[in-house]
Amino acid sequence: MNPLLLKTTQDSPAASWQDRLYALTSKPAASTHAPMKPSVVYEASTPAPDPTYGGAATATVDPSSDDALAALMARNSASSQPAGLFAGLGQALLGRFATDGANFVSDAPGTGSADASISLGIRTASGATVKLSLSGTQSGLSVSLTSDRTLTDSEKQAVAGLARAFQDAVDGLGKQPPTLSLDGLMSADPSVLTSVDLNASIATAPGVHESIALHTGSDSRSLKVDGAGGSIALDLDMSNPATWGNRAQRDASVASYLDQIDAAARRGHADASLVSLFKDGFSQLNSNYPPSPSDAATRASVRGLSGNDHALLTGLADFDVSISQATQASNPRQGSELDTFNYDASQSTTLSGRNASDRHIAQSQTSHLTASFHTSPWPDTPLNLTDKLGSQNYNYTTIDDSAHASTNIAYAKGKLITASVSHDASQDTHVLKYMVGQLVDDTDTPAHQEATRDLLPLLTENARHPGSAADQANAADVLHAYSKLQADPSRLGPRG
């Protein structure tokens, strides 16, 4: 029988809700545990039925009520995987704020072996703090939802509006290996909810945990992941919305950076799962930007950028991101030869000048890749390094690449006087070839290219002959393409 369908019709009319709750939650407990007596702070009122957690279209239990939550916990507590342990709980708990936002604190004993904890902290514009935590261990499941003060109706609705997004994040983190589904948490209304913080620790193997820390606020966003495979760190500066582009431009810039990351991963033989996590994090942190200031709010200031200004910028918030793969020593006979992969990229944008007529815009993008790895000297023979001398046939490659792009735009007395984009890319590949442990070849291959393009003549011509709306859109796409970072020297033309 589905425990969520148990309702007062099956109990004595005189039975209190505490008695019904105790009866519901004590039945699934293993005989080795004492019966559960959850501590429930308040009982939420009952909104319209939601079949999501009732298990049937005819369910009559409010999924956020104390009874339903206790029954859901009792059902989940036996799960040995975080996905099952926390199924539905995040959404049901935050859903309480759709009504009265009642607190809820409870424990459910269980027999599962899951080892995971996920917490969510929400700060409102009025200064209230909402904290939600989910924790699962071998002894059972614990949940806690508290608010340090009464929320306004708009705050309640904003918190409840994150329920599905939080559950998506919980479901992703509960997978093996954990995945990121965080973009929904970026949609919080910053005028009501000033910050959202998610922290998680998930066991991916006995004694091995992966930790995730997400922050999203009015001025910044960040994500940090640490695990056995390596770490990623992403920081976005959300304090300069005047330089942001529209959604299409941002999507194009994100896609360009994902291509750059893929190229670096192929060149540096990176771990595919760690790179995938990095790409997901970069994409999701750059989703759901809050509204930019209106033209009226910035027209008279140095921040009043034109369409051409925006076209020459990436449209993304400034960022600083990195990925670092766990170091391995894969050659038993040469412990100093390490397999590594480290990649970082950044963007910074500055606006200066007295006003919109006399202003300067500068945007800088950089990337840096260092990597080292072992490969077989023969394409059709797999690498198999052991402590035997006869296995010591391999190439050991080290890579050091860097790239830089800079955009400069300047106006004097309302006239565009500078519009240029410069690129600089360097790659260095060093390969040591060993046969039966002896160095037989040492090859170093450097490559470097620079390119600068003066876009002032193109912009001047476009201003004289703007053409149709479609022509203007195409011209903006062409300008935007010039701003993209390029890490491959062979794809940069000569200086001109």
Description of the structure:
With 496 residues, the protein is α+β, with helices and mostly antiparallel strands. The protein has 2 domains: 1-12 and 40-217, no CATH class; 219-496, no CATH class. Helix content is 24%, strand content 34%. The chain contains 12 helices and 14 strands. A 14-stranded antiparallel beta sheet has the order 1-4-3-2-5-6-7-8-9-10-11-12-13-14. A hairpin with a 2-residue loop joins strand 12 (394-412) and strand 13. The radius of gyration is 28 Å and the shape is flat. The termini are far apart. Mean pLDDT is 85; it is low at 1-60.
Q: Give the CA-CA distance, first to last residue.
A: 76 Å
Biggest β-sheet: count, sense, barrel? 14 strands, antiparallel
* Rg: 28 Å
State the helix count: 12
Structural class: alpha+beta
Uncertain spans, ≥5 residues at pLDDT below 50?
A: 1-60
Number of strands: 14
Task: Give a brief rundown of this model.
This protein has 496 residues and is α+β, with helices and mostly antiparallel strands. 24% of the residues lie in helices and 34% in strands.
